[in-house]
Amino acid sequence: MGEDGYFKPQMRKVPTGELMQPSRKTNGYGVQAEDTRICVVMVGLPARGKSLIAQKVVRYLGWLSIPAKTFNVGQYRRSNTPTPTAEFFDTSNAEGERLRRAAAEAAVDDMIRWFAAGSGTIAILDATNSTKDRRRWIQERCDAEGIETLFVESKCDDEDLIMSNILEVKTTSPDYKGQDPEKAAQDFRNRIKNYEKVYETIDEDESHMTYVKLINVGKQVIINRIQDYLQSRVVYYLMNLHIKPRSIWLSRHGESNFNLSGQIGGDADISDRGEAYARRLPELVKQSAGDRELTTARFLEYEKLEWKALDELDSGVCDGLTYAEIAEQYPEDFKQRDDDKYNYRYLGGESYRDVVIRLEPIIMELERSENILIVTHQAILRCIYAYFMNVPQERSPWMEVPLHTLIKLTPKAYSTIEERLKADIPAVSTFREKGSLAKHQ
Ligand code: ATP
Ligand code: F6P
């Protein structure tokens, strides 16, 4: 901080060809996050997508190296009441009230301990938090610890959607383990009725709080008193989410002449086999598309976009070399990259961490879009795949993403389904295991 009270930008020489660990100050994301601690407090009736939203936010932040964790009050409650019936959630049930309160307290205590341990930036308190009283209590606990609060209310009055949410995720919840799905759905509807008796939406009385209200899955969004950059990132992400059924298809470009010679980077032409794959790709997509996707898309001329942000990881001075040549000419670098491939930045080039940062707008675009096919390079596909499949950073740069293979990802409520279709067109493998010099073959 300068004398005038403003942050002075520090001119820091950024070394290249070194391991660039994220600094605590920026979380590797260029965000002044050193002292930022935010509790995202979910608000809303049951079956309004709160847990799904919480889980997505944690995955997104984790992908950006922002330490985030969900504290789900339901899980704490299950330790005292594993399979409650709707009556448990009736506020005139004193014992139920006591146990629910105890679960909320245990979750908040753990969250505060997690922040105190020093490595957390964003906690998500996943519960209905459906009364003003409860929200005031959370606000006070957070204020006392210097933790910012961001209330996220999901409101939805689309009865069909709520019913399908119940059938999709609630009847299989551990709360109804081993029970008849129809009875479970009926009981869950009664649970919602009990919540409705006391539910208070966030309103003018709470205008001093920082909040976002997502109404009918983002058809309308109300934002109040957003205070800092990280909060606005979270809100922006939430604004881009939708739950329409869709798939994301991922493919590498067809085999290139550089792939054949084992050279990395470059902008080489595609080989004859690569050309054959390019011709086969539309057929593969058709093959893997369900009837609904095909029917929906039948009148569309596919729009094609070129995104600079999808360029391959820049290998700097190593561009155009084979892995064996890199090992010979830059042995130290070669070893460093094997030791920490995610953070290693090529001399004059990029690391996987750098790529993730430049891909962030692409992820936002992918969240907004419906069916989409992305054709790009190996390292870029690994990063995009890691986001959707929640692959940890130490593993993502080592994943096999073969040439001439179409990957179809279909997001579901709490998971993403993956299918792989191999085109019957041979291609070299560009995969290199840790420690090997793998000439592509
Ligand atoms: P509970 O209070 O019982 O934990 P919840 O609000 O956490 O319920 P989820 O378990 O997240 O609800 O429900 C997931 C379902 O909600 C999914 O089927 C998902 O498609 C749907 N969903 C996701 N976002 C929204 C939203 N903004 N509004 C309504 N439904 C949504
Ligand atoms: O070999 C193909 C390629 O796309 C190169 O251009 C790129 O440098 C490399 O894959 C990325 O993979 P890795 O990070 O495993 O070296």
From TrEMBL:
Enzyme nomenclature, EC number: 3.1.3.46
Domain of life: Eukaryota
UniProt domain 6-phosphofructo-2-kinase: residue ranges: 32-245
Enzyme class, spelled out: hydrolase
BP terms from Gene Ontology: fructose 2,6-bisphosphate metabolic process; fructose metabolic process
Record's keyword terms, sorted: ATP-binding, Hydrolase, Nucleotide-binding
GO molecular function terms noted in the UniProt entry: 6-phosphofructo-2-kinase activity; ATP binding; fructose-2,6-bisphosphate 2-phosphatase activity
Gene Ontology cellular-component annotations: cytosol
Family the UniProt entry places it in: In the C-terminal section; belongs to the phosphoglycerate mutase family.
Protein name, UniProt field: fructose-2,6-bisphosphate 2-phosphatase
Naturally occurring in which organism (per UniProt): Cryomyces minteri
